[in-house]
Amino acid sequence: MSDFHRAASGGLSPGELEAVLRQVGAERYHNRHPYHHRMTGGDLSKGELQAWALNRYCYQAVIPRKDAAILTHAEDPAFRAEWRKRIEDHDGEDGWSGGIARWLHLATSLGVDADAVKSQRLALPATRFAVGAYLAFCFERSLLEAVASSLTELFSPVIINERVPAMLAKYDYVTADTLAYFTRRPEQAARDSDFALAYVRKHADTPERQQQVIDALVFKCDILWAMLDALQHAYGEGGGNIPPGAFRPEA
């Protein structure tokens, strides 16, 4: 595995920086995680899929909030006009006609109670801590770092293209309607990642800023990886490590 923490020490051209960022995804994006491999291999129980959907909702629900945090750093009206599309994608026009609502539909289609999902009270402690850390990062770090952290969207079409066909083929209770959330995401992610990548290539113009950008993407990959680590620990091998108060699948 590459040592990304010194990758920009000698300075990088915009193309070289992009290549490093893409290598971060190739090595550290969560499509490499065993939980994802078990999902696409058809090896998760229904309870494990339910736990995944319920916990991932915490992340989906925080996306418009982290994007609003990013907007507080942005002085350029043109940047704000482009970035706020992300909030509209997830909240929709009325708060419940966008991506968050479609993820809630995914979870309820798997048999999880809607109020339990929306309350987030049954999510794993590690999930809540990871999501909170991501939100804090986008509030506290520079605009450039926060934008760079969103570049996991460069790799989301890969995981969607692995996940959706496999789930439809290997879980007879999963339908195209269950996974409707993913229908729009590749197009949205491509639009958003193109904008963010162009911004990073332009503004990461010193070795220090380039390293901050790389570290931000590594951090974001770590967040997504940690969420699957928590699911694997709690629900893998029969669910013997579920913490008190967290979601427990029906026997």
TrEMBL record:
Enzyme class: oxidoreductase
EC number: 1.3.3.11
Annotated SUPFAM superfamilies: Heme oxygenase-like
Name of this protein: Pyrroloquinoline-quinone synthase
Keywords in alphabetical order: Oxidoreductase, PQQ biosynthesis
Thiaminase-2/PQQC domain mapped to chain residues: 21-229
Family that this chain belongs to: Belongs to the PqqC family.
Naturally occurring in which organism (per UniProt): Manganibacter manganicus
Catalyzed reaction equations: 6-(2-amino-2-carboxyethyl)-7,8-dioxo-1,2,3,4,7,8-hexahydroquinoline-2,4-dicarboxylate + 3 O2 = pyrroloquinoline quinone + 2 H2O2 + 2 H2O + H(+)
Taxonomic lineage: Bacteria, Pseudomonadati, Pseudomonadota, Alphaproteobacteria, Hyphomicrobiales
Top-level taxonomic group: Bacteria
Keyword Oxidoreductase: yes
Function: Ring cyclization and eight-electron oxidation of 3a-(2-amino-2-carboxyethyl)-4,5-dioxo-4,5,6,7,8,9-hexahydroquinoline-7,9-dicarboxylic-acid to PQQ.
InterPro entries assigned to the protein according to its UniProt record, in alphabetical order: Haem_Oase-like_multi-hlx, PqqC, PqqC-like, Thiaminase-2/PQQC
GO molecular-function terms, A-Z: pyrroloquinoline-quinone synthase activity
Pathway the protein takes part in: Cofactor biosynthesis; pyrroloquinoline quinone biosynthesis
Biological-process GO terms, alphabetical: pyrroloquinoline quinone biosynthetic process
One Pfam family per UniProt: TENA_THI-4
Gene responsible for this protein: pqqC
